[in-house]
């Protein structure tokens, strides 16, 4: 009887263990936070060009729109209309392709992209890329930059064609094409400008219980757009452009030295490419300034920022056309006159004492 009882007990244990095993198998695998999370702010935008000129700047996305998935052989056309005063000289012209969701099958990959500018084939001189770097749907996004200075001869309409030259099954989507033109003009304004570029994929979407869906909180998705140092010259105006892919979420915010604007990215010119332009004159400080973007919610990709500060050229703090701040002569540097006088006095004392010693 004892043996049969032991067998029954063993059978019960096996049944219990089987139920527990089936329960464990039915449970979803416990989520594990990735060691590297590309959805956090880890790629601040970098300054491509900073200078002081007499002239102006234009920025346009032409008739850009979201392309949808482009497969091998597909093309995407954008017309860019440039309008600058006659007689000006183009200092630099920069073209940007804002792309996203690039892959082949279920695998993320960087795109094979052919770009022509009025039939001239271009090669990017900067490739800014970012990706999630964990789990499924690890498809990268990017901002690729091209120097088109020699191709902009003045006002007019220029046509850009982008082709997917990847293998069959490879795809990517374009959120738009940007074009910035900096020109000098003897009749222009005294301006200082900063052009920042990059690509920082962000996502701080939250679950219903308040936990981060993708292991990133809004405090972890604040990226640096620009950190300009402003001179002491008299500022007449300061205009800021921020270019954010897929920023059409109400709570996303722009931050300038503690001032915050939310709800400003409303899908203009279209939901895939949000461009905000605003006057920030009242919010700039002499010295270093901090300009940031915070992703509060779903996917957003900061891709560029452009700051133009106009100075009062009639004031003592005006700027020279050479691109350097107006610097006084050496004798007017604070404290230099006093130091020079002290040196003269010490020299006189030395030579007087030396004469006494000789005697």
What does this molecule look like?
The chain has one domain (46-311): Jelly Rolls (Sandwich). By secondary structure, the chain is mostly beta strands. The chain is flat. The chain contains two helices and 22 strands. The relative contact order is 0.18. 13% of the residues lie in helices and 41% in strands. It has helices at 2-26, 336-358, and strands at 46-60, 70-71, 75-82, 89-104, 107-108, 113-117, 120-122, 126-130, 141-147, 156-164, 170-184, 189-197, 222-226, 229-230, 235-245, 253-256, 259-262, 269-270, 273-279, 287-288, 291-294, 301-311. The strands form four sheets. Strands 1, 2, 4, 5, 8, 9, 11, 12, 15, 18, 19 and 22 form a twelve-stranded antiparallel beta sheet that branches. Strands 3-10-6-7 form a four-stranded antiparallel beta sheet, with no helix packed on it. The model is unreliable at 16-30 and 316-359 (pLDDT under 50).
In short:
By secondary structure, the protein is mainly beta. The chain has a single domain (46-311), classed as Jelly Rolls, CATH 2.60.120. It has two helices and 22 strands.
Query: What percentage of amino acids are in beta strands?
Result: 35-45%
The CATH architecture is: Sandwich
- End-to-end distance: 131 Å
Low-confidence region ranges: 16-30, 316-359
Structural class: mainly beta
Largest sheet, strands/sense/barrel: 12 strands, antiparallel
Q: Could you tell me the radius of gyration in angstroms?
A: 30 Å
Helix amount: 10-25%
Q: Looking at the structure, what is the overall shape?
A: flat
CATH top level assignment = Mainly Beta
What's the overall average pLDDT, rounded? 85
Order of helices and strands: HEEEEEEEEEEEEEEEEEEEEEEH
* Tally of alpha and pi helices: 2
Query: What do we call the CATH topology?
Result: Jelly Rolls
For the record, the count of structural domains works out to 1
Number of strands: 22
């Amino acid at each position: 009887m004892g043996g049969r009882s032991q067998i029954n007990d063993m059978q019960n244990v096996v049944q219990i263990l089987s139920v527990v095993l089936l329960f464990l198998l039915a449970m979803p695998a416990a989520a594990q936070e990735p060691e590297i999370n590309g959805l956090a702010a880890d790629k601040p935008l970098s300054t491509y060009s900073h200078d002081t000129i007499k002239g102006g700047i234009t920025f346009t996305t032409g008739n850009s729109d979201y392309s949808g998935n482009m497969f091998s052989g597909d093309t995407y056309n954008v017309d860019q209309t440039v309008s600058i005063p006659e007689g000006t000289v183009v200092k630099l012209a920069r073209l940007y392709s804002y792309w996203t969701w690039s892959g082949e099958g279920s695998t993320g990959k960087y795109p094979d992209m052919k770009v022509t500018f009025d039939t001239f084939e271009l090669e990017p001189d900067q490739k800014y890329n970012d990706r999630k770097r964990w789990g499924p749907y690890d498809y990268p996004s990017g901002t690729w930059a091209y120097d088109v200075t020699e191709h902009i001869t003045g006002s007019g309409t220029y046509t850009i064609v982008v082709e997917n030259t990847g293998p069959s099954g490879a795809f990517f989507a374009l959120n738009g094409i940007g074009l910035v033109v900096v020109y000098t003009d003897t009749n222009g304004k005294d301006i200082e400008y900063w052009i920042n570029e990059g690509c920082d994929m962000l996502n701080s979407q939250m679950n219903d219980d308040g936990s981060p869906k993708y292991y990133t909180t809004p405090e972890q998705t604040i990226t640096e757009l620009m950190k300009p140092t402003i001179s002491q010259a008299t500022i007449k105006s300061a205009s800021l452009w921020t270019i954010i892919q897929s920023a059409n979420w109400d709570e996303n915010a722009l931050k300038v030295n503690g001032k915050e604007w939310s709800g400003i990215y409303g899908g203009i010119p279209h939901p895939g490419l949000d461009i905000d332009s605003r006057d920030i004159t009242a919010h700039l400080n002499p010295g270093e300034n901090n300009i940031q973007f915070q992703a509060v919610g779903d996917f957003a990709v900061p891709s560029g920022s452009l700051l133009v500060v106009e100075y009062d050229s009639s004031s003592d703090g005006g700027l020279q056309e050479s691109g350097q701040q107006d610097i006084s002569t050496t004798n007017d540097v604070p404290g230099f006159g006093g130091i020079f006088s002290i040196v003269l006095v010490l020299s006189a004392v030395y030579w007087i004492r030396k004469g006494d010693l000789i005697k």
